[in-house]
Amino acid sequence: MIEVKNITKRYGSLTVLRDFSVDFDESGVTVILGPSGTGKSTLLRCINGLESIETGDILVNGLSVLEKRNLRSIRLNCGMVFQSTILFPHLNVLENLILSPMKLLGVKRSEAEEQARYYLAKVGLASKEEARHNELSGGEQQRIAIARAMIMNPKALLLDEITSALDPEMSVEVLRLLEKLASDGVTMLIVTHELSFAQKVARRVLFLEGGSLIADASNEVFFNDLKFNNERIARFLQHIN
Ligand code: ADP
Ligand code: MG
């Protein structure tokens, strides 16, 4: 579903991704691990067409990010959630959720509200539809952000360290939600430093360092073998535990 083909991504003289290739098919959770500054966010942003690439190509459902006219469809196919989320402060939660379906997909208000309530229930926040941004905890804001991405019915969710600005308790509530979505079969690419969560939900684990893919393994191989036997990975995992 997502094909990253020999891409190079530079910021000025800094090469972040170097002749980088990876494919994602349509099922299950892929967790992306790796040290800070290694290109994980850049990779997700390139897939979503938020960053341009210097060489290579990325296809999402066969559509290239190099063509401007494909970007809208690519972004609809890949819903992205970031480290922190700002909901429109003058709108309540329900209004925040129905905005994109109405504006981008032409869904009628009544139908959009019905969908919004469905996804709010899914993320456990049915009671918050009238709340505003400043009345929600950080964890609740992130769960709303997930609902806001899911209401667009994307083929995959790209989640970039969405718990790293949260205190441990709120992280747990967001990670629990992701576990539930994973068991519902939602396709996700998740950048995280939460190892035990990664081990629980990932079907596949990628390890990036210095703009290259150091490992691309099944959960079992990564956590039973590479975790101990790949020196670089072992060192990284010890460091974050
Ligand atoms: P990660 O998500 O793995 O921590 P990033 O993809 O955010 O890493 O960043 C990779 C490298 O690119 C880092 O060295 C970072 O400083 C640099 N970088 C990221 N975004 C920009 C930008 N907009 N302009 C210049 N350099 C950037
Ligand atoms: Mg990052």
Structure report:
- This protein is of the alpha/beta class and 241 residues long.
- The protein contains 9 helices and 10 strands.
- It has helices at residues 40-47, 71-77, 93-105, 109-122, 138-150, 168-183, 195-201, 219-229, 231-240; strands at 2-11, 14-24, 29-33, 55-60, 63-64, 78-81, 156-160, 188-191, 204-209, 212-218.
- Strands 6-7-8-3-9-10 form a 6-stranded mixed sheet, with helices on both faces. Strands 2-1-4-5 form a 4-stranded antiparallel sheet, covered by helices on one side.
- Helix 3 crosses helix 4 (109-122) and helix 4 crosses helix 5.
- The chain is globular and about 55 Å long.
- The two termini are 33 Å apart.
- The model has no long low-confidence stretch (mean pLDDT 94).
- Bound molecules: adenosine-5'-diphosphate and magnesium ion (MG).
- Structural class, from helix and strand content? alpha/beta
| Coarse shape | globular
Query: Mean of the pLDDT scores?
Result: 94
Q: What is the strand tally?
A: 10
From the alpha carbons, calculate the radius of gyration and give it in angstroms: 18 Å
Strand order of the largest sheet: 6-7-8-3-9-10
Q: Percent helix among the residues?
A: 40-55%
Bound chemical compounds: adenosine-5'-diphosphate, magnesium ion
Helix-strand pattern, N to C?
Answer: EEEHEEHEHHHEHEHEEHH
First and last CA, distance: 33 Å
Question: Spans with pLDDT under 50 lasting ≥5 residues?
Answer: none
Strand content: 15-25%
Note the total helix count. Answer: 9
Give the biggest beta sheet: 6 strands, mixed
Family: Belongs to the ABC transporter superfamily.
GO molecular function: ABC-type amino acid transporter activity; ATP binding; ATP hydrolysis activity
Pfam family, one: ABC_tran
Keywords: ATP-binding, Nucleotide-binding, Transport
